[in-house]
Design brief:
The chain is of the alpha+beta class. The chain has one domain (9-151): Nuclear Transport Factor 2, Chain: A, CATH 3.10.450.50. 41% of the residues lie in helices and 35% in strands. Strands 2-1-6-5-4-3 form a six-stranded mixed β-sheet, covered by helices on one side. β4 (110-120) and β5 form a beta hairpin. The protein is globular.
């Protein structure tokens, strides 16, 4: 009888450990995929490829982008903002650097990332600030569904 109880307890404990390891492995993989998506965006920006940079966002009217005191709804509005601010005549994209990335998995299909951004402009100026991004996992991978970016004064 004691052997049966011990065996059941051992199997239950082993199952819990294996489930915990599977969950931890899944979270680790998701964090790596999200960081990779952010690094892809950084590289796209630095080669002045705004289309590739925007591929990190969900191409949907449901995308929200908060910057300063302004809300932009939808992928196209975010793209238009970036084009007007950074890719139109007389504007420069500069060199983008993300740092202090912290990614938290909220479930199998949701996560948020926090970090800092810095642009190094050709004239030596370095606008910078913080961001919080909400990601969702889609068949095409992890995509940003909400971006809240602030700039330092």
């Amino acid at each position: 009888m004691r052997t049966g109880i011990f065996l059941c307890s051992f199997v239950s404990l082993l199952g819990s450990v294996l489930i915990g390891q599977t969950s931890a492995n899944r979270d680790h993989r998701a964090k790596a995929e999200i960081e990779h998506a952010l690094r892809d965006q950084q590289e796209a920006w630095n080669r002045h490829d705004l289309e590739a940079f925007m591929s990190g966002y969900r191409n949907s009217p449901e995308l929200t982008f908060f910057s300063g005191a302004t809300e932009h709804d939808g992928w196209q509005a975010a793209m238009d903002r970036y084009q007007k601010t950074y890719a139109s005549p007389g504007h420069e994209m500069g060199k983008l650097d993300f740092s202090n990335l912290r990614i938290e998995i909220l479930g199998g299909h949701a996560a948020f990332a926090r970090g800092a951004w810095r642009l190094t402009m050709p004239d030596g100026k370095t606008p910078h600030g913080l961001f919080t991004l909400i990601f969702r996992k889609f068949p095409a991978g992890w995509k940003i569904v909400h971006d809240h970016t602030s700039a330092a004064d």
